[in-house]
């Protein structure tokens, strides 16, 4: 399992730096990095996908004066940014409020990986990437074979050459991630929204990661915001859209139990994931300095074992979790 000195319990996700869902200013993006750094956070994750390169550029500027050896940075491959032949003015359809002079072209070939990383280095203004993640090989169609035969050998070679320190896959599909773990020997899996307090993956991905010494970076632990407050409402977001009734009802039941123990629901959501020894980091999206401080405070909340036992008793948590 990857064991970098810079790992901490929390990491900084930068999808919001690409104006995911709402605009974020340059100043706020800078303040996120400044505050996170002051609080000791040293892992930052980004991707070309986030705001058509905007997140990488903002993160690179914010990290420019920081000692490169003191932080970890991951970015992703699989989506090249190319000129958009049919711009409509905004990338809002893909969730990012940025101009759409560029568009994404999915490419999981070896050449695509090398080009993607070279272009990311330019946008970031740095000389190396620590972790390269194959991004969303599951959507909108299955690109596993292309990634296995193209991206994986290229990333292995780049690791052997010392260009990157680790590689893996980033996806919200635990079954797809497990195929990589079973067949490709990655260093790490970034799993989005499928190993959370709300829904625990059921295909055996984390068990496979434990058997194969693969670290898990957990993202989306608030399920797109549904678990981010103590009182999940009907206007909450899930999968970046309206929350379905069953998920809302389950979130409200979780909130009722955590309230009984005086634990904020988002604190329990973070703590649940961190209890699994295979999880090496919980990476949270942060869009301003106060959110950084709030997330760190949530991470420091003590969660009693009795809370997990009660959740299991009510059928909201697999009982094997507390054994």
From TrEMBL:
Residues 9-311 form the NADP-dependent oxidoreductase domain. It comes from the Bacteria. InterPro entries: AKR, NAD(P)_OxRdtase_dom_sf, NADP_OxRdtase_dom. Gene3D superfamilies: NADP-dependent oxidoreductase domain. GO terms for molecular function: oxidoreductase activity. One of its GO terms (cellular component) is cytosol. SUPFAM superfamilies: NAD(P)-linked oxidoreductase. It holds the Pfam family Aldo_ket_red. This is Aldo/keto reductase. It comes from Enemella evansiae.
